[in-house]
Amino acid sequence: MTNSSPSPSLTVALLPLLALIGLISLTISIYGSDALAGGCQTALLISTGLCICLSMSIYHIKWQVFEDSIKETVSGATVSIVILLVIGMMSGAWMICGTVPTLIYYGIQIMSPKFFLISTCILCALVSVATGSSWTTIATIGVALIGIGKALGAPVEWTAGAIISGAYFGDKISPLSDTTTLAASVTGTDLFRHIRYMMGTTVPTMTISCAIYLIAGFYVCGEGELHISEYTEGLARTFNITPLTLVVPLVTGVLIYKKVPSLITLSASAITGIIMAVFLQGDILKCIAGDDISGLLAYVKGAMTTLFTSTHVATGSEALDALVETGGMGGMMDTIWLILCAMCFGGAMIGSGMLTSITTEIIKHTKGIYSLVSATSLSGIIMNLTTCDQYISIIIEGNMFKDVYREKGYESCLLSRTTEDSATVTSVLIPWSTCGMTQSTVLNVATMAYMPFCFFNFLSPIMTIICAGRAKRQFEKKNVSM
After folding, report:
1. Which of 382, 389, 428, 471 is deepest in the core (most CB within 10 A)?
2. Cα-based distances in Å from 88 to 83, 311, 396
């Protein structure tokens, strides 16, 4: 059912959005980093109710319009939700089979004082790609690297900047990342096509960032002994560290190269990881299963537990225990809950015509691809500043511009890339956002202190605008060939 009522005025259209901003700000101030566990979801549903009430009372829009719009919006996220569940399985399998521990074990040993900053950035990027989570990377190996940096005489704000830059690079391009999956889903882009298209901006930005960290390392890092034995010995003592575990990401890479559908690729990767865990990490699976079961059933229980819920492996090091902890499918539930509530809000804003009113006003000031990409990028940053959450920013930004990009003939991957280059990476630079508060607390470095050194994060929106010209040429070439 379509909405035949007159379009809401811009003032009315902004009311639910402003209410959402206020409620989320209040939620963040009350719950802090725990706001994603229910507070933000509640704010979204209240704002959804406000949108519907205003529309029904002022513009006499029928309830059925909202019901149909919400159903359509939520149904569009079903594949994304299934992918997130499979990602939860995959992340658990990659950890328990030893893939992630092996990457960390070898990666951490390549560091030296003068190359500490660039090594930190690259190591965090590898871990983040493997885990799909910038938060996990920063809260685990990032915390360890802060301590190592202090021992080397590296300024803590430089170290924090390198950690966050690497972590968010990996978060952006990892098929395990919930924000990557969300950006692709909201804009209607295939996951791996989205990742491939992002390489055009992500790789140059990361290259520039690494060059800065490489040069800076010779000037800001002192001499010192790199205390990594606690981590390498703990990993070697707990896991069977072997290059054989890298077969899992190799298989995943081949499937991605072959352009196998993302759901199949991720499922195959999770299954491969569990098979490798049975052969290489049998003792860990038995430990996860518990003492009340033995034999073949212990392997089955350990594998199933790894896939669907949190696992805890004792390594003898508190930092490593947190690093190798996994969440399985259950660890994705807060994100899925948030997505469903955000989709309800987006569906109500679409059904009421309010989102169209806001978008129309923005589009009035865009004349070409540079201004459109700039407006999209700026909107992502503003959404982060106001809603204080990257997930909500991605969903709102994607829904606001999806039809605009389609009408102008630009492919959805341009929108998904711009959304990631703005909404995802800048969230951690905002002191009052969930990301900014969390990472500042975890690293014990003020957001405003590390912000100037997160080169990847603040260069990404600039790079996406610069690369808009290339997208324009591709678009024009495509039109000529048609």
Report:
1. 428
2. 9, 12, 24
Dihedral pair phi/psi, residue 233, rounded to 5°: -70, -40
State which amino acid sits at residue 481.
S
Per-residue tokens: 471: 């997208």
Q: What torsion, rounded to 10 degrees, do the Cα atoms 401, 463, 178, 147 define?
A: -150
Could you report the per-residue pLDDT of 301-360, keeping only the tens digit for each? 999 999 998 888 888 777 678 767 888 888 878 778 877 887 788 788 888 888 778 777
What DSSP state is assigned to residue 5?
A: S
Contacts of 61 (CB under 8 A, 6+ apart): 3, 5, 55, 351, 352
Rounded to whole angstroms, the Cα distance separating 376 from 342 reads 19
Cα separation, 346 vs 41, in Å, equals: 13
368, two tokens: 């070409």
Query: Measured between alpha carbons, how far is 108 from 119 in angstroms, rounded to an integer?
Result: 8
Q: What is the pTM of this model?
A: 0.69
